[in-house]
Amino acid sequence: MDKNLIQINKNDRMHHMKKCLEHWQIVSLGLGIYDALAVCIAFLAALWLRFDCRFTSIPADYIASYFRFIPIYAAFSVFVFWRMHLYNSIWRFASYSELLRMAIATGITFVFHCFGMTMFVKRMPVSYYVFGILIQFFLTLGIRFSYRFILLERGRRAEHQKEEEERRILLIGAGEAGQMILRDIKKAKEIPDKVCCIIDDNPNKWGRYIDGIPIEGGRDSILSSVKKHHIDKIFLAIPSATAEEKRDILNICKETGCELKNLPGMYQFMTGEVSVAALKNVVVEDLLGREPIRVNMDEIFTHIRGKNILVTGGGGSIGSELCRQIAGHSPEKLIIFDIYENNAYDIQLELKNKYPDLALHCIIGSVRDSRKVWKLFEEFRPDMVFHAAAHKHVPLMEDSPCEAIKNNAIGTYKTAYAAMVHGCKRFVLISTDKAVNPTNIMGASKRLCEMIVQAFDYKIKQGKAEEIPQLFTHWMADSVKSEEVKAQLKVTKTEFVAVRFGNVLGSNGSVIPLFKKQIEAGGPVTVTHPDIIRYFMTIPEAVSLVLQAGTYAKGGEIFVLDMGEPVKIDTLARNLIKLSGYKPDVDIKIEYTGLRPGEKLFEEKLMSEEGMKKTPNELIHIGSPIPFDIEEFLEQLEDLMLAAYRNVPDIRERVAAMVGTYRPEGVSGVQERARAYRRAMSEAAAAMEIGS
């Protein structure tokens, strides 16, 4: 038992000693043993060389003298090396200092060996001393520097492997932004990327170099340079380029199949944020070639700051972006109202994280619920309402036309009435270009929404707000006929306006998410018609327009964005396939499925009867309202609401009687669309070839 305990204690001490020794100390101990053996071998080899490389030729007294002195010399050599700090140097970083100390230590031991051997043992041949010390120097120095050489060789192999793995970059733009991107790539050693050449349209720079990288030519050289240098990525770093210039360059780049990245604009350049991290993937929006909407943020800030803002449909694609931009302009309160709790929760969580001090309220409910809407306005008393809640999917609404009327038209009516009664200063309706000469029930329902806000605005300006019918599907007589409500209707000054824009890229129901899913699934990508065209804008642009319209509003206007030139959906699909790294009709097939019920070949921005007025923003216009019999319209709305809630089959005919420009799908509608399409194609022939 005692012996076992002693053995356990002994093992514990040994383990403790091992733990106490650092790795470098163990290496130094081994190096000392090696040095002792090296000096012994060095001078034995010197004798062997001196006598013609034959041990039998070495005199016995020389051998005896060697063995008498060599243990002393080995111990002395190790001591000298230790004193010269040759056992605690970091040899992976060995340099001139280590070489010098090694030479000095060798010189000291050489003197000691010559003096000690000659004076106290026996005089040896001169060649013994010379060969011995040289062999000793190379053996002791070699073991130390060989470690560094091995590491260098490993580094070279890793560098070679890195060159094989690195991705080759073509940089477009030899200006300041391009130089900053180039230097950022060179500094980021952990990123296996390499700029192989630069493209710039300035002929004065061709054939010259930036940091050793050649400038090979203008945009016409992109395709040849990609092939020549086996390019994997293309970085576009021209922040000052116009949208059209970027579009033209990117249309060339997308043919290469390379990964494309783009420096968004001058903002990053002016703020010094030009780096590889600032580059964004090129998206199909970049190929539209239209300058972004520029709005007066000071005006928007003044109208929103310190006010209670309500966004209906705040969880949708347009509504959520409205909430994001409004939240950044210091409102007193932001109220999100939406029927779909998942979307509402997502935007609520996002805004709480980004704006922890924002007074944010997220309410679940429907604009069709009169009592819920009434209670919402009673509790929060919003100063401004952005009404984005709507059913927007054309084919689905064609299958359920009464739902389009209930949610879009009647829901807008109820929300607008509650806003007027509760002292809201401004009501902004989010409309669509599908409200122009609509051929589908969704567009017709949005035209009804525009007519509703125009009717409300007219009645308020005439001082006859109390004459507006109270259309409610729930019993609310006590609320809407109270003296407080009657008094408010006499003094209400709510301004009602509509904002109309085209298709929004990336929104719910947009073709882009559908195309992306089809591409991910390997195709085919479905396009309804090879000649179908649409006007497009981005979600931030649409929201900027809505916010700016809120500042221009005086009541009754329909604000319209100059959306530039129309784009073929077929071209859009092909560009998206190319940006995804595939070839249209080769890797991913495109199929034409035919126009869906109620779908147009093209969308108009304004009805032909509407005139255009300018605003301080040159890309925002005001359409003069088309006159209609407001009294008759308001009377018809109640019958339309009751018909929609009864789900009558002739709802389209009833809507057509109220919306004179609505042409339900039919033979005459198809003929009219064909004539209008041919007219639009002749006016925008060049524009339709964008990016093709």
How would you explain this protein's 3D organization?
With 692 residues, this protein is α/β, with parallel strands linked by helices. The protein has 3 domains: 18-162, no CATH class; 166-282, NAD(P)-binding Rossmann-like Domain (Rossmann fold, 3-Layer(aba) Sandwich), CATH 3.40.50; 297-689, Rossmann fold (3-Layer(aba) Sandwich), CATH 3.40.50.720. The strands form 5 sheets. It has a 9-stranded mixed sheet with strand order 10-9-8-11-12-13-18-22-21, sandwiched between helices. A 7-stranded mixed sheet has the order 3-4-2-1-5-6-7, with helices on both faces. It has a two-stranded parallel sheet with strand order 14-17. α12 (341-354) links the parallel β9 and β10. α11 packs parallel to α12 (341-354). It starts with a helix and ends in a 9-residue tail after the last helix.
SSE layout and pairing:
Layout: H1 2-20, H2 23-50, H3 60-83, H4 96-121, H5 126-165, E1 167-172, H6 176-187, E2 193-199, E3 209-210, E4 213-217, H7 222-229, E5 233-236, H8 243-253, E6 259-262, H9 266-270, E7 280-281, H10 297-304, E8 308-312, H11 317-327, E9 333-338, H12 341-354, E10 360-364, H13 370-380, E11 384-387, H14 394-399, H15 401-421, E12 426-432, H16 441-461, H17 477-480, H18 483-491, E13 495-501, E14 503-505, H19 511-520, E15 525-527, E16 533-534, E17 536-538, H20 539-552, E18 558-561, E19 567-568, H21 569-579, E20 590-592, E21 612-614, E22 620-623, H22 630-645, H23 651-658, H24 667-683
Parallel strand pairs: 1-2, 1-5, 2-4, 5-6, 8-9, 8-11, 9-10, 11-12, 12-13, 13-18, 14-17, 15-20
Antiparallel strand pairs: 3-4, 6-7, 16-19, 18-22, 21-22
Helix pairs in contact: 2-3, 2-5, 3-4, 4-5, 10-20, 11-12, 11-20, 13-15, 15-16, 15-22, 16-22, 16-23, 19-21, 22-23
